[in-house]
Specification:
CATH topology of the domain at 5-147 and 180-203: Rossmann fold
CATH class of the domain at 5-147 and 180-203: Alpha Beta
Bound molecules: NADP nicotinamide-adenine-dinucleotide phosphate
Strand order of the largest sheet: 3-2-1-4-5-6-10
Number of helices: 10
CATH superfamily of the domain at 5-147 and 180-203: NAD(P)-binding Rossmann-like Domain
CATH architecture of the domain at 5-147 and 180-203: 3-Layer(aba) Sandwich
Number of strands: 11
Mean pLDDT: 96
Shape: globular
Low-confidence stretches: none
Length: 295
């Protein structure tokens, strides 16, 4: 049987980068996409496409026929009425289809900090997803990123216009972070490799943690413009998400996640780690976004 790698969310930040990296390496690909017109041009004509959502058992039944590896990502959904149920509404049908089709290897995007004792909002929901996917019996890699550097792209205007960015994190406590490109690169490497087995957690993070105050310094040096860090109170943070249309469950999940981050949900970085540093990311991704004229 030839290889067939199935990719969910190929129109998303990570999924598109995973698919593109595998395509460049010549791997046979099948993409599950709700709206194929949103696929990157580079993928069109280079992969099978199954139209629909990976929460749909019928779509999964078609997509996983003959699959030798599967990439799973649960889409963010600001309006989900229940955070854990949102993750499991994808994880359950995916696990059932993986079991039914005997898919040998599954790689999913979860979160760093698995094993944390307390409630952790969105992070806990991702770890619940891991358990369900592991119950499929497939060989499994739970990719575990912390805070995405790309989250700061939502604050490009604030950075450009007001010289600041804001998070609920303590200005002087290390904040683990990762560039999404590193998550995609790690996923693509595992998906292209047919030799691994067992079920393992795979932390993916930048080699050194920075405090938000240090991040502000690095951003200022990169942009050659003073940028300050402002710690949002949890009350402001809650209000900001609520006014952006998030459901009460998502707002609670975000706040609980922020509290878990303050409580040390992420273990300290190991300096032996590899990956894009925050300074490199600022120089390549953030600088381009900040200097791009607003549309
Ligand atoms: N942000 C962080 O700091 C952080 C940290 C750790 C882990 N994570 C995890 O990383 C993931 C986010 O990845 P990302 O940034 O690559 O996401 P993204 O860019 O927002 O992409 C979302 C993808 O999901 C698809 N999608 C949306 N709703 C869907 C539905 N109902 N059914 C099927 N597909 C749907 C979208 O496709 P279309 O809309 O084109 O159909 C798109 O391809 C989440 O699981 C999150 O928990 C995030």
């Amino acid at each position: 049987m030839g290889a067939m790698i199935v990719i969910t969310t190929p129109t998303g930040t990570i999924g598109a980068a995973v698919a593109e990296s595998l395509r460049a390496g010549g791997a046979p690909l099948r993409l599950i996409a709700r709206d194929p017109s949103r696929l990157p041009d580079t993928l069109r004509g280079h992969a099978d496409v199954v139209v629909g959502s990976h929460a749909d058992p019928a779509v999964l039944n078609t997509a996983l026929t003959g699959a030798t590896a599967l990439f799973v990502l649960v889409p963010p959904n600001l309006t989900a009425p229940d955070v854990t149920e949102h993750y499991l509404s994808f994880a359950r049908p995916v696990a059932d289809a993986v079991r039914a089709h005997g898919v040998p290897r599954v790689v999913a995007v979860s979160s760093l900090g698995r094993g944390f004792a307390g409630p952790a909002g969105l992070l806990s929901a991702a770890w619940a997803m891991d358990e369900v996917l592991e119950s499929s019996g497939a060989a499994y890699r739970s990719l575990q990123p912390p805070f995405f550097m790309e989250n700061l792209l939502h604050q490009v205007e604030l950075i450009r216009e007001q010289g600041m960015f804001t998070l609920p994190a303590d200005p002087d406590a290390p904040l683990a972070a990762v560039a999404t490109a590193d998550v995609a690169r790690t996923a693509a490497g595992l998906l292209a490799d047919p030799t691994w087995s067992g079920q393992e957690d795979v932390p993916v993070r930048e080699p050194v943690d920075h405090t938000p105050r240090e991040m502000a310094q690095i951003i200022s040096e990169t942009l050659r413009q003073p940028v300050a860090y402002h710690q949002a109170t949890l009350i402001d943070y809650r209000a900001r998400y609520a006014s952006s249309g998030a459901s009460p469950a998502i707002v609670d999940g975000m706040v609980e996640m922020a509290e878990a981050q303050t409580a040390g949900v992420y273990p300290p970085a190991s300096v032996t780690g590899v990956g894009t540093t925050f300074r490199q990311w600022c120089g390549s991704v953030l600088a381009a976004a900040v200097t791009r004229p607003p549309v």
